[in-house]
Amino acid sequence: MTFVVGEDCINCKHTDCVEVCPVDCFYEGPNFLVIHPDECIDCALCEPECPVDAIFSEDELPAGQEEFLRLNADLAEVWPNITEKKPAMDDAEEWAGKPNKIELLER
After folding, report:
1. Of 18, 22, 24, 59, which sits 20 to 30 A from 86 (CA to CA)?
2. Dihedral, CA of residue 79, residue 26, residue 81 and residue 72, to nearest 10
3. For the segment 81-104, what is each residue's pLDDT rounded down to a tens digit?
4. Which fold would CATH assign to domain 3-84?
5. pTM of the entire structure?
6. Which residues, 6+ apart, have CB-to-CB distance to 106 below 8 Å?
7. Pairing of strands 3-5, 55-57
8. CA–CA separation, 4 and 34 (whole Å)
């Protein structure tokens, strides 16, 4: 089992989750974070740290976000690892909770 970063992270990219991860399984893209499924130990420490509630257990992904399981796995293979907290994106608050952000994902 793994945790998955979902759509609400797009254009927000808070990194509070990165700071608590004991195995450094987060990877960073231009406007999104992902969790490497083979590195995640299912500790659940990251989930409550996300200020926009964008992290889910893979078996609790919201309807319509199933593709994020594959996206997290694929993008974790090409994006650099992130191990320290950074500031959120400048306009993160404006994007929090907005639907249909998948088309804004920058690879």
Report:
1. 59
2. -20
3. 999 999 999 999 999 999 999 999
4. Alpha-Beta Plaits (3.30.70)
5. 0.96
6. 29, 30, 31, 32
7. antiparallel
8. 7
